[in-house]
Amino acid sequence: MTKWEPDTDQLTTGLISVGLSGDILWLNEAAHTFISKNQVQIGKAKIQEALPEVARRIDTVVAHGQPIQISEVYLAKSGVAVDISLSLWNTKSILIELYPITERIRQRKHADRADRQQAIGQMARHLAHELRNPLAGVKAGAQLITNQTTDTTIARHADMIERGVDRITALLERFAESQTHRKAPLNLHQLLAESVELVLAERQGELALETDFDPSIPILIGDCDQLNQLFLNLLRNSAQANAATIRLITRIEHHSPIVNPPHKHAVRITIEDDGSGIPAHLHDRLFLPMVSGKDHGSGFGLAIAQQIARAHDGLIEYQPLDNGSSFTFRLPLSVQSEEETSNAA
Questions:
Q1: Could you give the CA distance from residue 184 to residue 339 in angstroms, rounded to a whole number?
Q2: Please, what is the Cα angle at 34 between 28 and 35, to 5 degrees?
Q3: Residue 335, class by beta-carbon neighbours within 10 Å (0-12 exposed, 13-18 middle, 19+ buried)?
Q4: What share of the chain is helix, strand, coil (3-state, %, to 5)?
Q5: Which of 67-81, 128-142, 257-271, 331-345 is predicted least confidently?
Q6: Which residue in 210, 239, 275, 307 has the most C-beta neighbors within 10 A?
């Protein structure tokens, strides 16, 4: 037994030491779980039996002396997906590392669903464009009735039609507005502070704020106006759910499951509240346009927020709490260069 073996049972990474002939020499608890073997007779069990997916790669590692990476291998026995790394441990053994990627796959599925929702949003914007002219005609007709009638009841009904058309037009234009993004250096915490200040003013002292900010987050690159709209929509969603307290948390998430090369890390912004939450039947459709859990909600706020997030290669997720809601926005960590930083200063 090597001196590092006893400490590895606390790891979520599976570790397996294999002899050059394929004999399993040692494995930690996580590896036991991944290969779904409660009892492994060390020195007798073969890697071909436990992980046939990687057994044929051993000769390649031995021959070339270079590590091999295998992405997203599904282990049928345990139902777990892992990334696998094989490397020479010493002259007599190979180290196999199994990294669970359940979170990455979950995030990818969530992102795929968000992208499908964005496609619906694009259809909604096309619909908004098609509806502008007929709605304008309805409004013009209502105005004509108002101008020509002396009957107060008819005039009142015509005015109701006109105001209704204005509301529909405003909702459609709000979602169909141009999504041109002007990315520039921005201070995330300053941007959050400005968004929070506006929402607190709107609630006139009825809302408390708690912050837990990561001071190591650098100057980022993004569209300040669009991200401000994203934060306002999320914060207002919490405020309108009768929250008494909102908690803002920022962190750098290393090797985040949502990011793709050349990025490696993400900034995670979490907004938690102690409000009334969102009905369970809306959770899967929450970011679709015109889906709202509020009696007087437009159903566009969260859809617009997700639209902005995806345009920044990010993602918003919702998680119900025992008392309230949690929205997490992950944004790939794109930072400005040192030259840009000095110029911005």
A1: 14
A2: 90
A3: middle
A4: 45, 25, 30
A5: 331-345
A6: 307
**Cβ 176 vs Cβ 255: under 8 Å:** no
Most confident of 7-21, 126-140, 142-156, 319-333: 319-333
| The token pair that represents 167 in the structure block | 């509301």
pLDDT tens column, 74-129: 776 767 778 888 888 887 888 988 887 766 666 666 666 666 666 666 666 666 66
The least confident of 22-26, 227-231, 337-341 is 337-341
Rounding to the nearest 10 degrees, give the CA dihedral for residues 31, 36, 38, 40.
-60
Where do we find the tokens 């057994």? 55
Contacts of 119 (CB under 8 A, 6+ apart): none
Cα separation, 46 vs 254, whole angstroms? 35
15: its two tokens: 């570790």
Continuous segment of H or E residues that includes residue 71: strand 68-75
Mean pLDDT, rounded, for 283-294: 65
Q: Contact at 8 Å (CB) between 160 and 144?
A: no
Task: Give pLDDT tens digits for 64-79.
Answer: 778 888 877 777 676 7
In sequence order, what DSSP letters do the residues of 108-137 get, joined into one string?
A: HHHHHHHHHHHHHHHHHHHHHHHHHHHHHH
Residue 245's φ and ψ, nearest 5 degrees, are -140, 135
Nearest C-alpha neighbor of 252 from the set 209, 210, 211, 218: 218
User: Given the structure tokens 């073997």, which residue do they identify?
Assistant: 37
Q: Is the pLDDT of residue 61 over 50?
A: yes
- Please say whether the beta carbons of 188 and 217 come within 8 A: yes
Judge contact between 275 and 323, C-beta under 8 A. no
Residue type, 264: K
pTM of the model: 0.54
User: Residues 100, 104, 107, CA angle at the centre, nearest 5°?
Assistant: 145
Residue with tokens 């909702």: 171
